[in-house]
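Standup notes
- DV: blocked on the single-chain target, sequence here:
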Amino acid sequence: MHSIETFRDLQGEATAWRHYLHENPELDYRVDNTARFVAGKLASFGINHIETGIADTGIVAMIQGKGGEGPTIGLRADMDALPIFEASNKPWSSQIPGKMHACGHDGHTSMLLGAAKYLAKTRNFKGAVALIFQPAEEDGRGGQRMVQEGIMDRFGISQVFGMHNEPGMEVGKFGICDGPLGAALDEFDIIVKGRGGHAASPHQNIDPIVLAAQIILGLQALVSRGTDPLESLVISVTKLNAGTAYNIIPDHAEICGTVRTLAPDLRDFAERQILAAAQGIARGFGGDVELKYRRLEPVTFNHTAETNLATKAARSLVGPASVDDSIRPSMGSEDFAYMLEARPGAYILLGNGSTAGLHNPAYDFNDEALSYGIGYWVNLVETTLGAGD
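- DV (later): unblocked, structure below
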């Protein structure tokens, strides 16, 4: 295994890649320039097996080890940016107004490219590594589509690993846990049906805005009074739409929001009880509701054996004291969860220092973290696949 000093030489080159990607952000599946850049770099490293166009703009590249037969493991990085106007004031700020790398995917891509360059040169492992460059993580569908298009079977991937930067965690430190690390994400729309009319005569109408207000409060009771306080359920109402004029009570109102859970049975509970609570409140006042409930990302679930491999790889790079293997799960979601449903694997967090938070206009990936991410990937490969001859 290697210490961090082994990877310092790649820092400058990876930083240049990262700054280029940061200046040229692209959204969802439309990461054509980013994908061309990545494929070009991979080819320049002497990697011959590069397949593009997966999930529109995704890439899988294969590196064969020199140590003989063995399994194939997948390493995944996301490539897409966010529809945000950047306010970081960095010299390498986004050159495309309204788009920026506010989640660090430019750093994730650059770290995997750095690892690819090192691994393509040394090949000190058995079996093979599948480098997965994914579009549309922020859209929440890119990982699912790559799985649906068969990358696990097509490339013979037996285990899969991911990594994400973590603002607030010191650079050079890692965090991971066995089991749930990130929450499942669902979305809902509740159509509250009333009876509209003149605002001067509310007694002749059924006001859907009043019903909506009661329903919003009722949903919070599902969390505070309907759920075990030791379990995690977050119901957030994020949109309320109703009405067209000051003097008209509308016929309907719309409540929209998200549900985040860490357990499948709690996910079932939320879907069932949101409808029951909303119906009960609305019908009690003469109205009714219609619920549209969409299950999106599943729980980001780390498998035990792969979590142990990831922890060992990180500790071999930075020492045991710099790797927390029992961090608390986050209620944020991550579409890498689809890959973890398809194959056993693990997702680890990498310290980004005291930067602005993710999805913030002032955020920027910390270049000092690049060599740590590169080193982690290399140590993970050699830990999992063993040393070649």
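- Follow-up: The mean pLDDT is 96.
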